[in-house]
Design goal:
- Keywords: Monooxygenase, Oxidoreductase.
- InterPro entries: FAD-bd, FAD-dep_Monooxygenase_BioMet, FAD/NAD-bd_sf.
- By secondary structure, the protein is mostly helical.
- 51% of the residues lie in helices and 3% in strands.
- It has two domains: 36 residues, no CATH class; 72 residues, no CATH class.
- It has a two-stranded antiparallel sheet with strand order 1-2.
Length: 132
C-alpha cells in the first residue's frame, strides 16, 4: 500500500506508521492500517526536469528524462510515446541531430505538462484528505 502526505505533515510521514492518523481519514482501511506494525517505510517522490533530452546524437527517454510521481500512472505511457515519437522523428529527418531537435520540440510540452500535473496531484491529494 502506498500512502501519500505532504512533507510538512510530520505525523502522517512518521515511521513506524501511526495508524490512528490514517484511520481517521480512511476508516474503511482500518483493518489493513491497524495491521501494518513496523513494516512501513518512507520514500520521497522525485521528479526530473532536464534542460534538454539530447546532446549531439544521443537522447534519453523515460525516467532518465522525465521521472514523475506515479499519481497519474503516466510515466511509462509518456516514455513509450516519447520513444515512438523519436522513431517517427528519425524517419522524418535526414540527420539525427535535426530529428532529435524536432522530436523534443514535439514531445516535450505534453510530457512536461503531465509531469507537472502528476506532481501537483501528489500535493493536492494529501491536502484534500486532511494530511497536509
Amino acid at each position: 500500500m502506498a500512502m501519500m502526505a505532504p512533507l510538512e505533515n510530520v505525523a502522517a510521514n512518521a515511521v513506524p506508521v501511526q495508524p490512528d492518523i490514517w484511520i481517521k481519514r480512511f476508516p474503511q482501511l482500518e483493518p489493513v492500517l491497524s495491521g501494518l506494525g513496523d513494516r512501513g517505510r518512507y520514500d520521497v517522490y522525485e521528479t526530473t526536469k532536464l534542460e534538454t533530452w539530447s546532446k549531439g546524437r544521443v537522447a534519453i527517454v523515460g525516467d532518465s528524462a522525465h521521472a514523475m510521481p506515479p499519481t497519474l500512472a503516466q510515466g511509462a505511457g509518456c516514455a513509450m510515446m516519447n520513444a515512438l515519437g523519436l522513431a517517427v522523428a528519425l524517419d522524418e529527418h535526414e540527420s539525427v541531430e535535426e530529428a532529435l531537435k524536432h522530436w523534443e520540440e514535439r514531445e516535450r510540452p505534453l510530457t512536461d505538462h503531465t509531469r507537472r500535473r502528476a506532481a501537483g496531484r501528489h500535493t493536492a491529494a494529501g491536502q484534500r484528505h486532511g494530511l497536509g
